[in-house]
Write a structure and sequence with these properties.
Elements lengths: L1 E6 L5 H17 L4 E6 L1 H6 L1 H16 L1 H13 L2 H5 L4 H14 L3 E4 L3 H9 L9 E5 L17 E3 L3 H9 L7 E2 L7 H9 L10 E5 L7 H10 L4 E5 L4 H10 L7 E4 L5 H6 L3 E3 L4 H10 L3 E3 L6 H11 L3 E3 L3 H29 L4 H13 L13 H5 L12 E9 L10 H9 L5 E9 L4 H9 L8 H19 L2 E10 L8 E6 L11 H10 L3 E4 L15 H4 L1 H4 L5 E6 L2 E2 L1 H5 L4 E4 L11 E7 L3 H10 L3 E5 L13 H4 L3
Parallel strand pairs: 1-2, 1-3, 3-4, 4-5, 5-6, 7-8, 7-10, 8-9, 10-11, 11-12, 13-14, 14-15, 17-18, 18-20
Antiparallel strand pairs: 13-21, 15-16, 16-17, 18-19, 21-22
Pfam families: Glyco_tran_28_C, MGDG_synth, PHP
Protein name: UDP-N-acetylglucosamine:LPS N-acetylglucosamine transferase fused to PHP family phosphoesterase
Family: Belongs to the glycosyltransferase 28 family.
Length: 645
């Protein structure tokens, strides 16, 4: 088994995007032969402090870019990073242990800080027993932060960036011009040879990131051109989503507003132009999609290089004022899109849609090389062998650690479905269920919630089921973990006693949330899935709207429901236990810290049908208050030694 460790950080989406796409490509090529762990040690080691650093970074680049320029310059021209390494002793200790425990063949860094820690760990002459690869996510204006510490290889997005590394003395043989790692969808489209139709009715994609004060005026420019269609992506900002949706009322046929989406590749491939700031991931994805850009803002520092790349090859326009954006678009589309075609042809010359696959192949080749005569670290082979999961389901009874109430970014969760699979898989869970919110649109509160972007919308339900179906195979192959598709049906009224939340566990097909509760339960059972009352009693540990309808009408619903949540996150609902109702316990997971909460333990065969039958019969069911260190069962070591719990 080839072991690959990917180290990333959340300071700018480019680092995480690169890490995710490399992992996807490696697992696409060798899903059975490669075990990939993707870890953010900033988040794992420092938690809330890491969140503060991340928020400070976003505030600096969006609100005080000149201050950020100064900070960027300090990183580039001084030894500030080297001088503050002592403050990151906890992370160094964690990384040292991680390298010993996982014994990776290749370590990939998409954030350069890790290279300084690795250099510090091995400074006393110890030999590294892995190949070290750094994936540089910036173009042209490459901060020396990226190359001041050692890496065996540097993957760069383009020839211009390769020239920068050569100019500072890095050997050409260590510079790999593979491109920025983009999603595999770009490669699939390139193989099919499918291109966007010639311009008749222009389609514009507007991704709102920073510079939100201009958003309304930019949208007005799009509305004014009646022959244009536009898609506006606002992300997870619910207030902004609501404001923009209100702003485009009456123009919904031409202007579509999306909240958070993981379909950016598809959107770029199906629009003629994208309006967005010059962020590393967005720029490289637009290049891969051959989608010309309008740049309304360039953040000082790394984004200056991204924009210079676009300007140098003639594939983008800079238009700071909203009126200039409208004029620039008209210029691109006039004369049957003559200028647009020119930009698109220029993009084809620098597009690298196969970048992730090329990186993955190189990494897999390196993992076969013997980097040292013998491994210098203590061997953990026996321990890790015990964790190799069989691809055949086990039907003999065994304890199974389960969580059946988890939310992803499809509703109001913080992690994507892929990230949730890795998060739970690395902690040794046996069975989990994704249960994103789906509201009753016939209810006023349901209509309002749908506008927030924090629940599944009807247009996203099919995509949600497809994504989970894809992740089911990866969850089992990589972690031996069963993944169920579920829904949390929200029937919210004006009071706790008129509100109910219902979990559908192991759904095969979508169910109309506007049906009555009894009809939904019947549809759940038609699919041989479980119907479970979600947080049916009064919350004690957290503030939030109580959903008491099912409890208040328990005599009516006890015969219909398969189980009731006796515990939800940190709340233990004693009345459910006293009634001797069939029970399970769940985390109601929305963000990583929610993992430390009540969970279900089943004693049955590791098989979907046996798990559901165990819950229905409610025999051999127990609950536990889950506690574990950050890295979980696959990466276990003595917690006291690590001191990072």
């Amino acid at each position: 088994m080839k072991r690959i460790l990917i180290l990333t950080a959340g300071f700018g989406e480019g680092h995480n995007t690169a890490a995710r796409n490399i992992q996807e490509a490696i697992e696409h090529l060798e899903s059975d032969e490669a075990l990939v762990d993707r870890i953010d040690l900033f988040d794992s080691c420092y938690g809330k402090f890491s969140d503060l650093l991340r928020q400070g970074y976003l505030t600096a680049i969006n609100r005080v870019p000149l201050i950020w320029r100064g900070i960027y310059s300090i990183f580039d021209r001084t030894t500030f990073i080297e001088d503050v390494l002592v403050a990151f002793a906890k992370m160094k200790q964690a990384l040292d242990w991680l390298l010993r425990e996982t014994q990776p063949d290749v370590v990939i860094s998409t954030y350069p800080f890790y290279n300084f820690l690795i250099e510090e760990i091995f400074k006393e002459g110890k030999e590294k027993n892995f190949v070290q690869v750094t994936v540089i996510t910036d173009s042209i204006t490459v901060n020396s932060f990226w190359y001041r510490s050692w890496s065996d290889y540097y993957v760069v997005p383009n020839a211009d960036t390769a020239s920068i590394l050569k100019s500072v003395g890095i050997d050409e043989c260590r510079i790999l011009e593979f491109g920025f790692p983009v999603q595999l969808e770009f490669l699939e489209r390139a193989k099919q040879g499918v291109e966007l139709d010639a311009i008749q009715r222009p389609k514009i994609l507007y991704i709102i990131n920073s510079g939100r004060k201009k958003a309304a005026k930019i949208i007005d420019e799009l509305i004014q051109r009646k022959h244009w269609k536009a898609t506006i992506v606002v992300g997870k900002d619910e207030k902004l989503f609501y404001n923009i949706s209100d702003h485009v009322k009456g123009f919904e046929e031409r202007i579509e507003v999306l909240g958070w989406t993981d379909k950016i590749p598809e959107l770029l491939l199906n629009h003629h132009v994208v309006i967005s700031k010059a962020g590393g991931a967005t720029v490289q994805e637009a290049i891969a999609a051959c989608c010309p850009m309008i740049i309304p803002q360039v953040v000082p520092g790394q984004e200056e290089g991204n924009y210079e790349l676009l300007r140098r090859y003639g594939v983008a326009c800079f238009a700071e004022k909203p009126s200039d954006i409208g004029s620039a678009l008209e210029y691109l589309f006039e004369n049957e899109g003559e200028k647009w075609k020119q930009l698109k042809n220029n993009l084809k010359k620098i597009s690298k849609p196969d970048s992730s696959i090329r990186i993955a192949r190189f990494v897999l080749e390196q993992s076969l090389l013997e980097t040292t005569p013998s491994r210098i670290f203590p061997s953990f082979a026996n321990k890790l062998t015990e964790l190799n999961f069989s691809l055949v389901k086990s039907t003999s009874s065994q304890p199974l650690l389960c969580d059946f109430h988890i939310h992803s970014t499809y509703s109001d969760g913080r992690l994507t479905i892929s990230e949730i699979v890795d998060f739970y898989g690395q902690r040794g869970f046996d069975c989990i269920c994704l249960t994103d919110h789906l509201v009753d649109r016939k209810r006023l509160i349901g209509k309002f919630c749908e506008l927030t972007g924090l629940v599944l919308t009807p247009t996203k339900v099919a995509e949600y089921f497809e994504t989970i179906e894809k992740e089911k195979k990866r969850a089992w192959k990589k972690y031996g973990m069963i993944l169920f598709c579920g829904i949390e049906f929200n029937k919210d009224g004006y009071s706790p006693k008129t509100s109910a939340h219902l979990l559908g566990i192991d759904l095969k097909n979508p169910i109309d949330p506007c049906l009555s509760l009894k009809e939904i339960i019947a549809e759940i059972h038609k699919q041989k899935a479980l119907a479970v009352a979600s947080h049916p009693h009064v919350f004690q540990s957290v503030w939030g709207p109580n959903t008491l309808f099912l409890w208040e009408n328990q005599q009516e619903y006890i015969p219909l429901l398969d189980a009731w949540e006796v515990a939800n996150r940190n709340d233990l609902f004693s009345p459910v236990g006293l009634k001797k109702l069939p029970f399970i316990a769940n985390s109601d997971f929305h963000k990583p810290k929610h993992i430390y909460s009540w969970k279900t333990i089943l004693y049955c065969g590791k098989d979907p049908e046996e798990i559901k039958e165990c819950i229905r019969s409610n025999r051999n069911v127990a609950i536990t208050l889950y506690r574990d260190h950050k890295f979980g069962v696959i990466l276990q070591k003595n917690i006291a030694e690590l001191e990072i719990a």
